[in-house]
Amino acid sequence: MQTQADVRHDWTEAEIQALFDLPFNDLLFRAQTVHRQHFNPNEVQVSTLLSIKTGACPEDCKYCPQSAHYDTGLEKQRLMEVEAVLAKAKQAKAAGSTRFCMGAAWKHPTDRDMPYVLEMVKGVKELGLETCMTLGMLKEHQADQLAEAGLDYYNHNLDTSPEFYDKIITTRTYQDRLDTLGHVRDAGMKICSGGILGMGETANDRIGLLKQLANLPQQPESVPINMLVKVEGTPLENVEDLDPLEFVRNIAVARILMPKSHVRLSAGREQMSDEMQAMTFFAGANSIFYGECLLTTPNPETNRDLQLFKRLGINVEQRIEQTDAEQEEAITRNLQARKDDALFYDAVN
Ligand code: SF4
User: Residue 108 domain-assigned?
Assistant: First the structure.
């Protein structure tokens, strides 16, 4: 479990701005120094992402080809069968992944969906992989069910700054997202949460996003930083490109603010040259998605990743076991806290 020593939760915009204002080489040197204090600099964690239910999402995220609000020609797919998901997980494990992430294009799962999803978590866990899911908003009891099934991580991105948020999504609020993250934490699971750059936001918005993530009560264990993939048919298809060096700066600042988190290169890696990816690893990125499909946008072929790792002398980080005992302890702590709350509530009423 992440210890809180050396991790600050009181970053101000001015302090983050000062990091962005550093000369590029100074910023990268500082980020690499922080990185080396907490991680093996020559290891990258590798996850595989599978879309278990694709398209027809009622949300209106302006970057997303899966939203039912935009016509992107995406082929829709109902919730996959549990067996088919487990077959994909086995392939991912054979290809060297240590974590298997399952994503469903839902506003939130219904209680009718939950039994299938819980079976998927249990099955993937039994294969010896870490498990991660992204299913949209969660209610408290759904987060508890996922934790009890053994889910290690829940992904729910903040996407951007609170100020820019309603230019990108109108069907749910920033607070909705924070509430889901709260339920995930309370249930004893780890959090994967980050955002997307290059959506037409300002430099201040990028600062605002990193500030939100860093100042959460407990920083996310995994922080995906995505570069927008402009998909035809979405409202952001013609937005101006973000300077690639600005993207690298964001990775470096994320590394400094969240020294113990895995900073993940996510969507948009396809468009990055090998040299740019190498620079992001130097800036402190130490996690990638691996596999041919990153939900519905193309991901560099796995082979290209392996070749790049070889050229850079990078090894795949082996799974850090959170023992079953540790996970059980987290869940028991949560249940006990709930009981205590209930007793307190009963006592005062
Ligand atoms: S990002 Fe997720 S919630 Fe938003 S439209 Fe796409 S699938 Fe739905």
Answer: yes
The answer as to whether 332 is a domain residue is no
Inside any domain, residue 3: no
Give the residue among 295, 234, 286 at the shortest CA–CA distance from 268. 295
pLDDT in tens, 204-252: 999 999 999 999 999 999 999 999 988 888 998 899 999 999 999 999 9
Identify the domain containing residue 159 by its residue range. 13-318
Closest C-alpha to ligand 1, atom 5: 67
Known binder of ligand: residue 132? Answer: yes
Residue 195 domain-assigned?
A: yes
Q: Structurally, how many domains does the chain consist of?
A: 1
Q: In CATH, what number is assigned to the domain containing residue 33?
A: 3.20.20.70
Q: Which atom of ligand 1 is nearest to the CA of 104?
A: 7
Residues whose CB is less than 8 angstroms from the CB of residue 129 and which lie 6 or more positions away in sequence, other chains included: 89, 92, 93, 97, 98, 99, 100, 319
224's enclosing H/E stretch is: strand 222-227
pTM, two decimal places: 0.83
